């Protein structure tokens, strides 16, 4: 293209303002703040409200239905029968408490492992190794969930590496509740390390120096300065570890042995038993727990850390 | 921070043990894919590369890989569009219900996957299927996109917060209209955040199994579902080992790409 042809080119969208419909729309949008906002929000809200909240609403409504035990057909008459069953039969209480226990244990284990690692990464390691360590923590996050659960199935197999480490077949934990907690902690560990690391990185070193200048030793500084500052990060991480553990049924099937969590019951009732309403009623348990948790931590600023 | 030598060594030790905890299982899978023995005998008695050839020729695995790719691309496209729109609305405007909107975006990953899965399944069964539309790849994409919006949203929001609005104001002062400003100023500044968010969204979708189980039609098998279906078949174990090993090796690719384009070592926010 020659210089001349560039000069000859009519006023295009690139350089000189045109007075076309685009320009008019642009200035109209500029004047109408509400229209801009509506344009931005309508598509995503339509999707999230219709596809997601709509589905959740259908879920809650169908939790009030029942299934005719002879024909297997849905009976679309509202009744609290499913919830009554869940509240009265001991097995559901046991499974709910076990699921809560597993989710809590996984969260605590991940916090205990993640804190020193994130602290080392953010405050001790050199900038160069810091970057490498972040990559090292992130890479397994991209490896498939199933692959990692499967890796532990291999690790924990009878006579596998873990047994071998403990000195022979049958000496390791094998498959079961302990294995489930262990593997879930493994799977969600990066989700805890990363927010804590991000929180610690934002924590200014001068604050730690000030604490030392005022006479606090390392332990005291960690207790009185570091920990209070990273509470939102820990809570943000715990939303992942807790929620992901609460809903899991795949890992339980892979390494859990005979262990049952809420997820398994939901899955079994929708699959083998073909009792969708009862599954829906069971699924409201983790929803209530998580919504309660989210509401409880809302003011901590954790949701902005996600 | 002034740490004693002992404390430093303790932290270094914790880091090393933690990294070993993270990487040893993955290494075991890699090693096991060369294990000639069909069972999990440890340490492996003999070595072979046969399984790698067998896995390469496995039609089911290949087809599942292709399905996963299509679902991932579809979900990522939807998530990029919706996530960017919400991020702009939440960052640039103050409006009634702003907090509710940001909570709504987070909710699909904050609630357990099984809830999202069963909710979409129920809605499909009772509302969409009676209209004659069955579950298929489309319903998988809808399900995946719903929880992928948040990662794009987070990445774009973080970038917008850091950018502020000065450059766009300058662009407007120089006579550019809204669309020109977006095309020549805002979009180039957002590009790497969009890339990081899109990459994360694709990875989330590619890896998702619980929501997929509930939203996939009978003929739709993504890679995780294929792996899971074959996991407990003893004669498939060697092929599964290889597919798992490949996925571990491939996990380096997104990290590498994110490193190339993004200034954050993390390559984006979750």
From TrEMBL, chain A:
<keyword id="KW-1133">Transmembrane helix</keyword>
<feature type="transmembrane region" description="Helical">
    <location>
        <begin position="132"/>
        <end position="152"/>
    </location>
</feature>
<keyword id="KW-0813">Transport</keyword>
<dbReference type="InterPro" id="IPR000515">
    <property type="entry name" value="MetI-like"/>
</dbReference>
<dbReference type="GO" id="GO:0005886">
    <property type="term" value="C:plasma membrane"/>
</dbReference>
<feature type="transmembrane region" description="Helical">
    <location>
        <begin position="100"/>
        <end position="120"/>
    </location>
</feature>
<feature type="transmembrane region" description="Helical">
    <location>
        <begin position="37"/>
        <end position="65"/>
    </location>
</feature>
<dbReference type="Pfam" id="PF00528">
    <property type="entry name" value="BPD_transp_1"/>
</dbReference>
<keyword id="KW-0812">Transmembrane</keyword>
<feature type="domain" description="ABC transmembrane type-1">
    <location>
        <begin position="96"/>
        <end position="297"/>
    </location>
</feature>
<dbReference type="GO" id="GO:0055085">
    <property type="term" value="P:transmembrane transport"/>
</dbReference>
<feature type="transmembrane region" description="Helical">
    <location>
        <begin position="225"/>
        <end position="246"/>
    </location>
</feature>
<feature type="transmembrane region" description="Helical">
    <location>
        <begin position="172"/>
        <end position="194"/>
    </location>
</feature>
<protein>
    <submittedName>
        <fullName>Putative spermidine/putrescine transport system permease protein</fullName>
    </submittedName>
</protein>
<dbReference type="InterPro" id="IPR035906">
    <property type="entry name" value="MetI-like_sf"/>
</dbReference>
<keyword id="KW-1003">Cell membrane</keyword>
<keyword id="KW-0472">Membrane</keyword>
<comment type="similarity">
    <text>Belongs to the binding-protein-dependent transport system permease family. CysTW subfamily.</text>
</comment>
<feature type="transmembrane region" description="Helical">
    <location>
        <begin position="276"/>
        <end position="296"/>
    </location>
</feature>
From TrEMBL, chain B:
<dbReference type="Pfam" id="PF00528">
    <property type="entry name" value="BPD_transp_1"/>
</dbReference>
<keyword id="KW-0812">Transmembrane</keyword>
<feature type="transmembrane region" description="Helical">
    <location>
        <begin position="102"/>
        <end position="124"/>
    </location>
</feature>
<dbReference type="InterPro" id="IPR000515">
    <property type="entry name" value="MetI-like"/>
</dbReference>
<comment type="similarity">
    <text>Belongs to the binding-protein-dependent transport system permease family. CysTW subfamily.</text>
</comment>
<feature type="transmembrane region" description="Helical">
    <location>
        <begin position="136"/>
        <end position="156"/>
    </location>
</feature>
<keyword id="KW-1133">Transmembrane helix</keyword>
<dbReference type="GO" id="GO:0055085">
    <property type="term" value="P:transmembrane transport"/>
</dbReference>
<feature type="domain" description="ABC transmembrane type-1">
    <location>
        <begin position="65"/>
        <end position="258"/>
    </location>
</feature>
<feature type="transmembrane region" description="Helical">
    <location>
        <begin position="193"/>
        <end position="217"/>
    </location>
</feature>
<keyword id="KW-0813">Transport</keyword>
<protein>
    <submittedName>
        <fullName>Putative spermidine/putrescine transport system permease protein</fullName>
    </submittedName>
</protein>
<keyword id="KW-1003">Cell membrane</keyword>
<feature type="transmembrane region" description="Helical">
    <location>
        <begin position="237"/>
        <end position="257"/>
    </location>
</feature>
<dbReference type="GO" id="GO:0005886">
    <property type="term" value="C:plasma membrane"/>
</dbReference>
<keyword id="KW-0472">Membrane</keyword>
<feature type="transmembrane region" description="Helical">
    <location>
        <begin position="9"/>
        <end position="31"/>
    </location>
</feature>
<dbReference type="InterPro" id="IPR035906">
    <property type="entry name" value="MetI-like_sf"/>
</dbReference>
<dbReference type="InterPro" id="IPR051789">
    <property type="entry name" value="Bact_Polyamine_Transport"/>
</dbReference>
<feature type="transmembrane region" description="Helical">
    <location>
        <begin position="71"/>
        <end position="90"/>
    </location>
</feature>
């Amino acid at each position: 293209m020659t210089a001349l042809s560039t000069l000859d080119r009519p006023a295009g969208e690139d350089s000189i303002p045109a007075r076309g419909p685009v320009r008019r729309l642009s200035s109209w949008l500029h004047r109408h703040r509400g229209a801009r906002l509506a344009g931005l929000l309508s598509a995503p809200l339509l999707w999230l409200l219709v596809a997601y909240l709509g589905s959740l609403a259908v879920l809650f409504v169908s939790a009030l239905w029942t299934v005719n035990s002879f024909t297997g057909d849905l009976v679309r008459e509202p009744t609290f029968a499913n919830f009554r069953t869940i509240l009265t039969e001991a097995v559901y209480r046991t499974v709910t408490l076990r699921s809560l226990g597993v989710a809590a244990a996984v969260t605590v284990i991940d916090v205990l492992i993640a804190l020193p690692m994130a602290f080392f990464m953010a405050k001790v390691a050199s900038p160069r190794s810091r970057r490498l360590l972040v990559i090292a923590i992130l890479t397994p996050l991209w490896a498939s969930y199933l692959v990692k659960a499967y890796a532990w199935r291999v690790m924990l197999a009878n006579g596998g590496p873990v047994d071998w480490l403990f000195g022979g077949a049958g000496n390791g934990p094998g498959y079961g509740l302990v294995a489930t907690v262990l593997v879930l902690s493994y799977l969600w560990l990066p989700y805890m390390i990363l927010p804590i690391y991000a929180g610690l990185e934002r924590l200014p070193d001068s604050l730690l120096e000030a604490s030392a200048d005022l006479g606090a030793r390392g332990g005291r500084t960690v207790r009185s300065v570091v920990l209070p500052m990273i509470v939102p990060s820990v809570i943000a991480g715990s939303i992942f570890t807790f929620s992901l553990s609460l809903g899991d049924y795949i890992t339980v099937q892979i390494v859990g042995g005979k262990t049952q969590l809420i997820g398994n019951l939901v899955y079994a009732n929708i699959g083998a038993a073909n009792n969708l309403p009862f599954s829906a009623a069971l699924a409201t348990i983790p929803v209530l727990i998580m919504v309660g948790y989210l509401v409880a931590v809302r003011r901590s600023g954790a949701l902005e850390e996600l | 921070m002034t740490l004693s030598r002992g404390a430093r060594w303790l932290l270094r030790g914790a880091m090393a043990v933690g990294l070993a905890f993270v990487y040893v299982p993955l290494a075991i899978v890699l090693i096991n894919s060369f294990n000639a023995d069909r069972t999990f005998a440890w340490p492996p008695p003999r070595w072979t590369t046969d399984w790698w050839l067998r896995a390469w020729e496995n039609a089911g695995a290949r087809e599942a890989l292709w399905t996963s790719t299509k679902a991932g691309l579809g979900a990522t496209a939807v998530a990029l569009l919706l996530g960017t729109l919400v991020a702009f609305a939440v960052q640039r405007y103050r409006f009634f219900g702003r907090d509710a909107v940001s909570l709504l975006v987070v909710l699909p990953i904050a609630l357990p996957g099984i809830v999202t899965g069963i909710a979409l399944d129920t809605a499909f069964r009772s509302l969409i299927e009676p209209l004659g539309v069955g579950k298929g790849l489309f319903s998988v994409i809808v399900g995946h996109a719903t929880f992928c919006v948040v990662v794009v949203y987070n990445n774009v929001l973080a970038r917008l917060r850091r950018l502020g609005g000065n450059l766009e104001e300058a662009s407007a002062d120089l006579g550019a209209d809204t669309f020109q400003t977006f095309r020549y100023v805002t979009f180039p500044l957002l590009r790497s955040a969009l890339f990081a968010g899109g990459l994360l969204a694709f990875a989330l979708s590619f890896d998702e199994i619980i929501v997929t189980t509930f939203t996939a039609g009978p003929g739709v098998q993504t890679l995780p579902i294929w792996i899971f279906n074959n996991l407990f078949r003893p004669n498939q174990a060697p092929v599964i080992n290889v597919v798992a090993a490949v996925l571990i090796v491939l996990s380096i690719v997104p990290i590498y790409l994110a490193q190339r384009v993004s200034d954050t070592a993390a390559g984006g926010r979750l």
